[in-house]
Specification:
Elements lengths: L1 E6 L2 E9 L3 E10 L12 E6 L8 H18 L4
Antiparallel strand pairs: 1-2, 2-3, 3-4
Length: about 80
């Protein structure tokens, strides 16, 4: 996984893998403060067929979803 962005106290980590007919993007979160005892938002993944229009923007769509997940996480009282 590689760091794509820092956002509101978290590293957004992504991994993109290719299969013969699809792409899979996996997203995970890591706290910038390095405190492993505190919770983080739950990671997620998505697989799309290479022939789908959404495959062209998969990583950007997943980054936007990761930011939304962090915003929602804070909105629900987490820190």
């Amino acid at each position: 996984m590689y760091c794509v962005e820092t956002y509101h106290g978290f590293l957004i980590l992504m991994e993109l893998s290719e299969a013969s007919s699809s792409w899979t993007c996996i997203v995970a979160f890591e706290r910038l403060d390095g405190d492993l005892t505190k919770p983080t938002p739950i990671g997620f993944d998505k697989t799309v067929r290479k022939s789908d229009d959404s495959a062209l923007n998969l990583s950007m769509d997943m980054l936007a979803k990761a930011e939304e997940r962090i915003n929602y996480w804070y909105k629900n009282g987490n820190n």
